Amino acid sequence: MTSQPRLAFIGLGIMGAPMAGHLLRAGYPLTIHSRTKSKAADLLTAGATWSDTPAAATSAADVVFICVTDTPDVEAVLFADHGVVHSARPGLIVVDHSTISPTATKRFAADLAKRGATLLDAPVSGGDVGARNATLAIMVGGDRPAFDRVLPLLQYLGKTITHCGPAGSGQLTKLVNQILVSVTTSPSAKRSRSPPPVASTPTGAIQAVAGGAAGSWQLSNLGPKMIAGDRKPGFMIDLQLKDLRLVQEAAADLGLHLPAVELVASLFKNAQATGHGREGTQALFDEVRRVSTR
Amino acid sequence: MTSQPRLAFIGLGIMGAPMAGHLLRAGYPLTIHSRTKSKAADLLTAGATWSDTPAAATSAADVVFICVTDTPDVEAVLFADHGVVHSARPGLIVVDHSTISPTATKRFAADLAKRGATLLDAPVSGGDVGARNATLAIMVGGDRPAFDRVLPLLQYLGKTITHCGPAGSGQLTKLVNQILVSVTTSPSAKRSRSPPPVASTPTGAIQAVAGGAAGSWQLSNLGPKMIAGDRKPGFMIDLQLKDLRLVQEAAADLGLHLPAVELVASLFKNAQATGHGREGTQALFDEVRRVSTR
Asked: Are A147 and A213 part of one and the same domain?
């Protein structure tokens, strides 16, 4: 890679916009594109260049970053009319930060490889706070030399950056992450339904167990929100269910039966069905309380 | 309490023996009793005094510590012939470090109170390593002034010492702890069944997710053992099931339905039924792998 690669960033949502901002402030020439141009305003003011299509953004860049929502969104950015593939050329590296299907990712990587371009799947964990503070965990699958070349760029975005294996393995690792996140939310939720003797000092009870073998990020971060009745989304139930669907699809591809995932997905679906989809995952509290007291 | 209270310790198993040793080395006069006298040898060499019965140990002590296995064991130590109650007197404090039924604990506390003695339920978390290193988490229920009086003694045994509320609330908090511990083991186990792309760097995959929202004590400590095939018990499946039975009994008392606990208990029971009861909880890996690949 040249010492000053030209970058493009496609998808300027709650995650993509701050990530693109870090790359721009690091001094790289940056072309941006998003379905909604208004989301680009701050970045354009700060010196980024607008492109009307993914293909146009790609033609101006050595490395293209993508951060959209789901598998069909990535497929459209890459392969629709005016998609990245139409400007793909040997040496181009595409870094996909979206959380999508590992199976589809392998197919996308193979299709881009026909044009000499390399796709790295690089889903992130850490939420909007992690994106703003550049403390994301980034789980990367794909060609190792390409990973080594973009690693200095990823270090502007995250703190824990891991090459997990060939194409698709970043997405698989992210799905493992989402299994752990979602299943850990479920027992945390039960805590809040404890009977009066402990509930009289619920925060103390969390402190009592959080330092030991029961400790988890979910307990320490979401437990206090459950107790306080704070349902503001760090991570929305709708998106958790999207990721659990990806987990279940991947499990089906592999012939796996994951009973805890199925249980937790059913609890989250009930929470969504009762109107909590756009609340944070800690609102599972309400659903667990509902099914717990029959 | 006098500046130098006389102590007794009943139950010198894998947890009790090192805990009693900390109190002895701290300079307190210590009387000990255990069903198996051979377990007392090291403590007797170090200066402890043997008693043939819990009642005799109690008559020589201002504070009596108990660390046995299950509800009937504590009931026998307290109320059987030659039990603690027969030497109980006003001002005596009994600290029960066993993990047992919260409901039975409340009954035991009321029965001791009739003799003017105070029972504190003080179950611990942190395993044999925590007992040896005096880094246990101790969750205490019962009379607050009694808690304040024994706190300086508990600080020789543990690091995180929390007064959770009235009698039984230490046991309830410990059961919350065991829910979180056991349910977090289940998704961790699934990790090890990941397909080849990630499994080629399983330790890296754990590192990739452990620092973020999926992180937990169980993942960081048991995940590597699952990958290495190390089934040596930190905490035995047999004992985990004993604690899950206590959780389910407490839930039944409260009219609660805890679906994740039921799922995890059924997985652990299958692991026990297939001969893994005396292995560490990380051996749940095998059971999850078995049910996952149908």
From this structure: no
Q: What percent of chain B has pLDDT over 70?
A: 91
Position A199 scores a pLDDT of: 33
Partner B contacted by A7 (CB < 8 A)? no
Q: Nearest CA to CA, how far is A24 from chain B (Å)?
A: 25
Q: What percent of chain A has pLDDT over 90?
A: 57
Shared-domain flag, residues A222 and A79: no
Q: Give the tokens for residue A37.
A: 């141009």
Q: What is the mean pLDDT of chain B?
A: 88
Please tell me the distance from the alpha carbon of residue A162 to that of residue A122, in angstroms, as a whole number. Answer: 9
Active-site choice (A37, A39, A114, A174)? A174
Burial of B160 (0-12, 13-18, 19+ CB in 10 A): middle
What is the CA angle A133-B224-B196, rounded to 5?
Answer: 85
Mean pLDDT of A173-202: 61
- CA A278, CA B148: separation in Å to the nearest integer? 45
Which chain A residues are Cβ-neighbours of B260 within 8 angstroms? Answer: 183, 186-187, 190, 260, 263-264
Q: Domain limits at A210? A: 173-292
Residue A163 shares a structural domain with residue A177: no
Q: Using CB atoms, which residue from A188, A194, A255 is nearest to B293? A: A255
Indicate the pTM of the whole model.
0.74
Q: What is the pLDDT of residue B196?
A: 32
A159 as an active site residue: the answer is no
